[in-house]
């Protein structure tokens, strides 16, 4: 190859390399420029968005801050009327900011402001002390009465379950072992003598076996109460079955002691805590049935709306059910251990029954069930 040809080839290679380098540099240069432009555009868009709406945000924040400090009297009528409108406006701004991916500082500010405003607009209007006074001062009883016929349905099911358990065991004693939990050395079995059964009711306060059996009864009834309410969403059918099955055990126990002429003694032994505990189960079952009936027959409402409304009403009842179970546990753990006569047990159990019936149905105050509006 001649010197001239070599120089031409070198010149052509240099030209191509320069052209390629310029093209690549142009690509990256444009990418950097485009990225910078996008950032500037986003910042400008965020600034414009904030400036156009910042007045409403600041006004809402000032109103919310004043209410949070308890200075309601200092608010003007215009501010109170504007509060729900401003809340919806800022909530709309938050939705737009999320969709358009505005800067994180703006998003964080709007999210915090909307959350604070929600509690002011829709949050509870009373403190814990006021809620407790309203709950015990008539709200709980009103919630129970609001269940209406569901309480009667649950009561009928519990009576039917007791009768069914009694008749099943009376027809075949083997049913007793299926309905009543047993343990080694337990004297409560078919064929036990009167003396053996009587010994399980009196003079056994310090023996461990009685405590274990009592603890089982409480834990079992607590589980039944919770499940009877929680499973109400299945149109109330599991609640019905739980009520019948649980009271069938009661019927089996009554049959066992009836066979030895200890009807009054077993009723007294059970009544100390049973009137409270069985009443709690009754209310829990009625709550589950109420939810199930609302879902099965929603009327003009949707199934979800009917279930939600029934759930709000029965939730108040279940708060009271938990308290009743605690009272029953105290009666079972102390009162029944201290009372060793049928008469004293019947007095305590009868008093508790009269107290609950009077509190729920006789003593009435003009209070709505908690969580409901007129």
Question: Considering DSSP H and I runs of 4 or more, what fraction of the residues is helical?
Answer: over 70%
Give me the strand/helix succession: HHHHHHHHHHHH
- N-C termini distance: 105 Å
Mean pLDDT equals 79
Report the total helices: 12
Oligomeric status: single chain
What proportion strand? under 5%
Count of individual domains: 2
Low-confidence runs: 2-9
- From the alpha carbons, calculate the radius of gyration and give it in angstroms: 36 Å
Structural class: mainly alpha
Number of β-strand runs: 0
Largest sheet: none
**What gross morphology would you assign?**
elongated
Overview of the molecule:
The protein is mainly alpha-helical. The chain folds into 2 domains: 18-121, no CATH class; 129-362, no CATH class. The protein has 12 helices and no strands. α1 runs parallel beside α3 (104-122), α8 runs antiparallel to α9 (237-258) and α9 (237-258) packs antiparallel against α10. The N and C termini lie far apart (105 Å).
Summarize the structure.
The protein has two domains: about 20-120, no CATH class; about 130-360, no CATH class. Helix content is about 80%, strand content about 0%.
What's the layout of helices and strands?
Blueprint: H1 3-68, H2 77-99, H3 104-122, H4 128-146, H5 149-171, H6 174-179, H7 194-199, H8 208-230, H9 237-258, H10 263-296, H11 303-338, H12 342-362
Helix pairs in contact: 1-2, 1-3, 2-3, 4-11, 5-9, 5-10, 8-9, 8-10, 8-11, 9-10, 10-11, 10-12
Question: Which key phrases capture this entry?
Answer:
80% helix; 2 domains; mainly alpha; 374 residues; disordered N terminus
């Amino acid at each position: 190859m001649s010197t001239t040809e070599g120089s031409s080839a070198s010149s052509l290679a240099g030209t191509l390399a320069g052209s390629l380098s310029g093209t690549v540099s142009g690509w990256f240069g444009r990418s950097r420029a485009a990225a910078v432009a996008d950032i500037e555009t986003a910042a400008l868009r965020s600034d414009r968005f904030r400036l156009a709406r910042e007045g409403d945000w600041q006004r809402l924040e000032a109103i919310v801050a004043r209410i949070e400090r308890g200075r309601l009297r200092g608010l003007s009528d215009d501010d109170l009327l504007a509060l729900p409108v401003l809340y919806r406006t800022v909530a709309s701004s938050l939705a737009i900011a999320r969709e358009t991916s505005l800067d994180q500082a703006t998003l964080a500010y709007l999210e915090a402001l909307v959350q604070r405003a929600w509690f002011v607009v829709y949050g509870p209007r009373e403190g814990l002390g006021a809620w407790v006074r309203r709950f015990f001062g008539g709200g709980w009883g009103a919630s129970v009465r609001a269940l209406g016929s569901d309480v009667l349905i649950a009561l009928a099911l519990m009576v039917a379950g007791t009768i069914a358990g009694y008749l099943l065991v009376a027809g075949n004693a083997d049913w007793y072992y299926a309905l009543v939990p047993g343990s080694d050395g337990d004297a409560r079995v078919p064929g036990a003598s009167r003396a053996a059964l009587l010994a399980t009711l009196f003079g056994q306060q310090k023996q461990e076996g009685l405590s274990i059996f009592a603890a089982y009864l409480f834990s079992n009834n607590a589980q039944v109460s919770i499940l009877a309410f929680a499973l109400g969403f299945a149109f109330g059918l599991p609640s019905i079955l739980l009520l019948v099955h649980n009271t069938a055990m009661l019927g089996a126990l009554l049959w066992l002691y009836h066979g030895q002429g200890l009807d009054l003694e077993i009723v007294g032994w059970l009544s100390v805590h049973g009137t409270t505990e069985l009443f709690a189960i009754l209310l829990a079952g009625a709550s589950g049935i109420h939810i199930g009936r609302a879902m099965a027959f929603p009327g003009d409402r949707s199934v979800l709306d009917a279930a939600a409304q029934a759930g709000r009403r029965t939730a108040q009842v279940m708060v009271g059910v938990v308290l009743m179970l605690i009272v029953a546990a105290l009666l079972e753990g102390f009162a029944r251990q201290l009372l060793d006569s049928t008469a004293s047990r019947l007095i305590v159990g009868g008093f508790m029954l009269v107290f609950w019936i009077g509190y729920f149905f006789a003593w009435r105050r003009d209070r709505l069930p908690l969580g409901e509006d007129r």
